[in-house]
Amino acid sequence: MAASFTRTLRHSLIQPPLHAAKLPPTYLHPLRAPLSTITHTTDPEPQPQDYHPTTSNPPPSKLHQVPPPQQPHPSPSTPQPNLPTNLTPTQSLLSQSTQPPTPLPPASTPALLPLLAAQPPYYITAHIHTRPYLLTTGDTLRLPFRMPNVQLGTILRLNRASMLGSRDYTLRGSGEKGYVDERFFVCRARVVGVETEPLRVVEKTKRRNRKVKRVKSKMRFTVLRVLEVGVRVPGVGEEEEVGGEGEGGEVE
To answer: Do 122 and 231 meet the contact criterion of CB atoms below 8 Å apart?
Structure first.
């Protein structure tokens, strides 16, 4: 009996119990962090009021102090301009540089016409029925309408212009309508033909209506060719106007 007890004790020491053999290995067990009731903070610990660092370096505020820049004093030999009390030197220089040029009085216009007349070729902004056209000698102008009572070859004088100029000089109109005095320039154009656009058919209809109205349009335009653009100086070389092949006239 003692031998059987010894054999049973030996088997129990060698072989592990049945419930321990069924457990998974320890490396497969889930990791669990231990719970703790101690709180941790990242704020630095407050230092006492009588704390002084034992360093020989001065505080940072004294290391980064830069003396203010010294403004140069004007020398007594440099004259200072007389500036208003309410303006700075920069504002006064800007006001002087951006000041627009002073226009010449109207009385000096005839005196300056010889300078404009001595510098051809010229350009002109002529107005026909209040519409402006920038023209020069040799240009072909197609009007957006058919001019009545004119024939092929008729020479017309354009007597309404708001600007007359050359490469360096420009004469602008003045007065209520802003036109240049017609005594200071001459602009003639010849009627060279009448152009016709292609026939257009426009369909017009209304809502909830099956009827369709077709409108035909075929407009005609008068074509002019500029013969002369010149400057006239009052009292110097004035010539009589010539009508040309057809009956001449003025266009406003």
So the answer is: yes
Residue 164: count of CB within 10 angstroms of its CB: 24
Please count the other Cβ atoms lying within 10 Å of the Cβ belonging to residue 135.
21
Residue pair 242/149 in contact by the 8 Å Cβ criterion: no
Query: 121 preceded by cis ω (within 30°)?
Result: yes
CA dist 133 → 82, 179, 226 (Å): 50, 13, 11
Q: pLDDT confidence of 245, banded at 50, 70, 90?
A: very low
Q: Distance between CA atoms of 166 and 157, rounded to whole angstroms?
A: 20
Q: Evaluate the CA torsion angle 52, 53, 58, 62 in order and state its sign.
A: negative
Rounded Cα–Cα distance for residues 241 and 239 (Å): 6
| 198 in Cβ contact with 217 (< 8 Å) | no
**At 99, is the pLDDT very low, low, confident or very high (cuts 50, 70, 90)?**
low
Could you tell me how far CA 132 lies from the centroid of its own chain? 25
Q: Bigger pLDDT: 159 or 62? A: 159
Angstrom distances, CA of residue 147 to CA of 39, 66, 188, 251: 100, 83, 16, 10
**Separation of alpha carbons 4 and 184, rounded Å:** 148
State the Cα–Cα distance between residues 161 and 126, nearest whole angstrom: 4
Strand partners, 190: 155, 225
Can you give the pLDDT at residue 234? 79
